[in-house]
Amino acid sequence: MARINLEHIRHAYGEKPKSEDDYALKEVHYEWNDGGAYALLGPSGCGKTTLLNIISGLLQPSEGRILFDGRDVTNLSTQQRNIAQVFQFPVIYDTMTVYDNLAFPLRNRHVPEPEVDRRVRETIDMIGLAGWAKKKARGLTADQKQKISLGRGLVRNDVNAILFDEPLTVIDPHMKWVLRSQLKKLHRQFGFTMVYVTHDQTEALTFADKVVVMYDGQIVQIGTPAELFERPSHTFVGYFIGSPGMNVLPASIDGSNVTLGPNTIALDFQPKVAAGAKTELGIRPEFVRLGREGMHVRVHKVEDTGRHKIVRAEFAGKPIAIVVHEDAEIPAEPRVTFDPSAINIYANSWRVGREA
Amino acid sequence: MEKTWNNKAWFMVLPVLLLVAFSAVIPLMTVVNYSVQDTFGNNQFFWAGTDWFVEILHSERFWQALGRNLLFSGIILSIEIPLGILIALNMPKKGIGVPVCLVLMALPLLIPWNVVGTIWQVFGRVDIGLLGFTLSALGFDYNYVNDVFDAWLTLIVMDVWHWTSLVVLLCYAGLVSIPEAYYQAAKIDGASRWAVFRYIQLPKMKRVLLIAFLLRFMDSFMIYTEPFVVTGGGPGNSTTFLSIDLVKLAIGQFDLGPAAAMSLIYFLIVLLLSWIFYTVMTSSDEQA
Amino acid sequence: MTARVDTQTPAQASSQTTASTTEKTVAAAQAPRRSLSWIIPTLYIVFLMLPIYWLVNMSFKTNTEITGTFSLWPQDPTLRNYIVIFTDPAWYSGYINSILYVVMNTVISVAVALPAAYAFSRYRFLGDKHMFFWLLTNRMAPPAVFALPFFQLYSAFGLIDTHIAVALAHCLFNVPLAVWILEGFMSGVPKEIDETAYIDGYSFPRFFAKIFVPLIASGIGVAAFFCFMFSWVELLIARTLTTTAAKPIAATMTRTVSASGMDWGVLAAAGVLTIIPGALVIYFVRNYIAKGFALGRV
């Protein structure tokens, strides 16, 4: 297990990047704690797999250094870095049995056969394929195959980190949940450093201690699930996390007063906004109160999810979503108030701090 | 894929059935017809029963030609298959090299077979050919017209030249269809170059290798045009393969009965051997 | 687990971007291990090209030079051999004949193979497996076996020395091959696509032409390529079935033996000309070759 430092990593797939836009992965400078469970979350093509492959050594970054426990591994191969990685589609060695598949990484490293046997048996129990050891891997189901891929990482108990590249894409929803809890359990039990790439926020939020949200080749926020929810540091995080996503409304700011169309709200802090910046107010639908007092709003439709209702409305000429309690009544002349502590102010899409 | 039972599908197969019946069944019936009759010309035929079959199966000439065919197929398969795999493994995977390699390698496959023969006939000639001239200049006593060994060598090198590309292209197609993740996983598992070949590349190439093997076996076993142009079956009968012998018998000597009987036996041998190879090579698949 | 996370905001991170360009460029420092694997294909291609080069070389030489001196390139380049071919109708009509029957064969083979391949890939029917195997056995039939009966069959229909005779005869081995290749590609198309189209109210012919055929276009291309190839290179049957009017170019080559001995130059030039159509076809399908040779089912 290791602490992983990424120092000013950048990557471009083409030769000689000219502008910032040529980089598939823009500057990343970050430390991953030993034993941490991290999720890399973001839409397709945001650079998360690139970052993962740079950590595992399948890809050489164009710029920057990678350290494992302080040791520079930038120029080391995947093998030398001692990393396990599970891919989106299960990779198994068709012609081998389940047992031999799991023994493969150990035998390649010339681990003595009794030790191989002990560890394979242990792993095979861990991933719940004990009865299948002698079966050819070819005939297994997708989730069993993915378990083998995972097992090939777990069987090497000295790996520096286990990396997952959207490992549950091909798995049935029910099995997804089972595998995810198994992973979580294994993580607690053995304390591997885990990095998990996904575009599914539920997966990221349930799996990881820290979620790294990526957008357009850069990391926009790193935080606990609660931080991402309450204090999205970029409007993208606001949209991307939560269902429905955060309401982002164009606003003009004057001292501690925010003006949204005809309405003005007084904040309990003074956001420091540079002149000429595009300013917006972000508020989660969960923190918009619908009642008979406050600012005027026009309700368009109400969606009932079973646990709560989502009200789609128009506020100051912009669409807004409001989450209300399952049996709350929608008043005839609806008005809204915003929970002051849940208001975030954005300048040019980046959050402006309270304290600033 | 789950297929539905539908006998109306026969209507879709009907055009193929009619066409192949016309171009295969009727001629084959003609052959069967001849094989059991004797003639003294003037379209007068007599029932000959299995006489011709017995005659062919007892003729040394037939068995020798068959032996030559088996030897030839065996040699070229044991050269072309490993060589083809080796070249395919070392082909560039991307960049400008890929189309260049593919186009140049495919070229011999699209040269008419008698031109292939002509090219090598000329190339191997001691007086005007680059190969023959160079070899004799180097002091080798090379002459494919007179020397049995040289004739065989020329035919084998010619076949390797002509057909190895087929194996290369098939294997290459199998190799490029392997997802990148397999190689990445192998790196992570610390697999050696040999292990990657043995456990990833070879299993993924298995199907195309089966196709390559069967096609090369069938075509080398039926070879006619190229040796006919280069050696004409000689020196002596040393390169007279079954096809050459058959054409000699049928068109040269117009011995229709024996030729027809030999045709049928020949056809059956190709079928039988292909079936055996196919069964043996796919049987390991079935046991899970 | 201690929180040693770098707490800089992304805004700060991007401001550092410019500073980090001075970091050493790793990619440059770690040049990929120099690989020698290009040697093997290169040697092989040299081996393939030598005999072809020699043929081209000869085609530009005079007969005196070919037989008299030994030279690696033409000392006295001449176009005479090509002029002989292009001015003699017997030569260039050979070309047209070959192309005609090859194209006819390709069209017929693919056209009849399409519905059959669809039937094999989608349905089970009485005797389907036997039928499929029987079709494939025709690919294993030695052309030498069929040469004589073909001659008699087509004589009976008065088709000797016509292009269609050769085209039909070549169907013997091309139709099974086309069915086999197309069946592979079609099996790769999910059956749900057919079902969705029927639900959307497509009739079978319309579905086949509008939806299915475009889906397997590359498979059709591959099948056509193989049909073209095997029809173009085959000579035994083509020569048996033709005398003058439909004689293929490759057969015309035997004419170069004249009273004054072998006309090597013209023979070489004719050989070079027979290579060109194949080379053109390969050039056009170069991007599909790898996929095509996988026959759609790896």
Description:
Chain C: One of its GO terms (biological process) is transmembrane transport. Chain C: Its main location: membrane. Chain C: Residues 95-285 form the ABC transmembrane type-1 domain. Chain C: The chain crosses the membrane at residues 36-56, 99-120, 132-151, 163-182, 211-233, 264-285. The complex is a heterotrimer of chains A (356), B (288) and C (298). Chain A has 9 helices and 23 strands. Chain A has 356 residues and is of the alpha+beta class. Chain A folds into 2 domains: 4-235, Rossmann fold (3-Layer(aba) Sandwich); 244-352, Nucleic acid-binding proteins (OB fold (Dihydrolipoamide Acetyltransferase, E2P)), CATH 2.40.50.140. By secondary structure, chain B is mostly helical. A two-stranded antiparallel sheet of chain B has the order 2-3. The longest helix of chain B has 31 residues, at 256-286. The radius of gyration of chain B is 23 Å and the shape is globular. The two termini of chain B are 19 Å apart. In chain C, helix 6 crosses helix 12 (217-233) and helix 9 (163-187) runs antiparallel to helix 12. In chain C, 70% of the residues lie in helices and 2% in strands. The longest helix of chain C is centred in the middle third of the chain and has 34 residues, at 89-122. In chain C, strand 2 and strand 3 form a beta hairpin. Chain C has a two-stranded antiparallel ribbon. Strand 1 of chain B pairs parallel with strand 1 (123-124) of chain C, so a sheet runs across the interface.
Short characterization:
The complex is a heterotrimer of chains A (356), B (288) and C (298). With 356 residues, chain A is of the alpha+beta class.
Average pLDDT of chain B, rounded to a whole number, is 83
- The CATH level-2 architecture of chain B is identified as Orthogonal Bundle
CATH superfamily of the largest domain in chain A: P-loop containing nucleotide triphosphate hydrolases
Terminus-to-terminus distance of chain B: 19 Å
Strand arrangement within the widest β-sheet of chain A reads: 6-7-8-3-9-10
H and E string of chain B:
EHEEHHHHHHHHHHH
State the separation between the terminal residues of chain A, measured CA to CA: 38 Å
Mean pLDDT across residues of chain A: 85
Query: What is the approximate shape of chain B?
Result: globular
For the largest beta-sheet of chain A, the strand count, sense and barrel status come to: 6 strands, mixed
What is the strand content of chain A?
25-35%
| Spatial shape of chain A | globular
CA radius of gyration of chain A is 24 Å
